[in-house]
Amino acid sequence: MEEKKSGDTPQRPARSSDRSLDRDILALAVPALGALVAEPLFVLVDSAVVGHLGTAELAGLSVGSTLLTTVVGLCVFLAYATTAAVARRLGAGKQREALQSGIDGMWLALGLGVVLAVGLAATAPWAASLLGADGEVAQHATTYLRTSAPGLPGMLLVLASTGVLRGLQDTRTPLWVASGGAVTNAGLNVLLVYGAGLGIAGSGLGTAVTQLTMGAVLTVVVVRGARRTGAALRPHRGGIWANARHGGPLIVRTLSLRAAILLTVAVAGGLGEVTLAAYQVVNSVWGFTAFALDALAVAAQALVGHGLGAHDVPRTRAVLRRTLTWGVGAGAVLGVLVAASGWWFALLFTHDPDVRASIAVGMAVCGLLLPLAGWVFVLDGVLIGAGDGPFLAWAGVATFVVYVPVALAVGAWAPHGVLGSLWLWFGFAGVFMAARAVTTGWRARGTRWMVTGA
After folding, report:
1. Sign (positive/negative) of CA torsion 73, 74, 75, 77?
2. Can you tell me the distance from the alpha carbon of 73 to that of 258, in angstroms, rounded to the nearest whole number?
3. How far apart are CA 246 and CA 387, in angstroms?
4. Span 22-73, pLDDT tens digits
5. For residues 67 and 118, is the Cβ–Cβ distance under 8 A?
6. pLDDT per residue over 373-386, tens digit each?
7. So where does this one cross the membrane (predicted)?
8. 451: which DSSP letter?
9. C-alpha angle with apex 143: 139 to 145, nearest 5 degrees?
């Protein structure tokens, strides 16, 4: 009996440590989820308001918002790189340096936002034509882009300041600001589109005003924290350059993901309108589940950066293990819900029985593979938190190269309709995500990514 007791003793602190770490993970992930879900509401509200203006206006909004969100999406490194840098310095006990790094990242966001705003406004007609818009649709897309483009500095400041706060292990403040922004955006859109009679221009202007306001509020929060620690508020060329240099590999990673998505859309289009229509619906579900799983990746970024900054390798390994457990588990739960609800969910979108069947099959494949996605998203967050951007860039290119022949084979040989949806999603959610799982999993098993210190 004594041997059994002595063997049991070390397990209790381990279980207690796991529970404590779980609380830390959920304390970061749950508010992060709320903030992540609040952002897509901007596009949904814009669509609902503009949709009542007419078909051409809604089509123009679709083109304009796609271009705008693509530009912002390519700048997500402002949040990721800043989170990793701030968390690492905070873990090392260098709070002033942590906030100084964050301030430099926000200066980079502001400058980049101004440049992109001017560029997008100037090239709006050409950019809209790239997505096939012409005539009245192109005019509305151009109007939306030119009225929403001034909000780009605010959008990028939201990314960078959110990264700072995540690095400081504060995900609640971004949640409240994002929630308030979603409500404000809805009110402004109705007021400007219908009350002021501005049409689609009112939607773009409302989005710009809301994003600039959100950026200003989050900037005030970060600046107050910086002043308390004595961090300088003026820009530092070296710090700005360091943020840009660390963000470069993450841009490559994001480009590889965007390229894979665009290739998948192109393949879906080649498989006929039934497969393409089903893809739009299934992809919206996939995107929503990705937000839920990305919340765990956000927690992993903050906790891994903090652990490595504190030279605490055992805790970093524990964070890796527990967030992976949560990621796979959450993916399994979501997967069951997605797979089981496919047919009923399809009824909300179409009366076409072929499209319904294609949606149901696509959601069943996605549901089956969501645990794998949970694994991938968490590992992505772990390596981003460790500042392992160069590896993620090379891995992103490699996985895209693996996916290209698979996607092309689906486009060439898969039949149209239900079976087309099956093979399309098996290629993307299966092969592409498996390639990402292999590369990031191989990296996480080693120690080269675990560089400690500030």
Report:
1. positive
2. 9
3. 8
4. 888 888 888 888 888 776 667 667 777 877 787 778 777 777 887 888 888 8
5. no
6. 999 999 999 999 88
7. 25-45, 65-87, 107-128, 148-168, 175-194, 200-223, 255-279, 285-304, 324-345, 357-379, 391-414, 420-438
8. -
9. 115
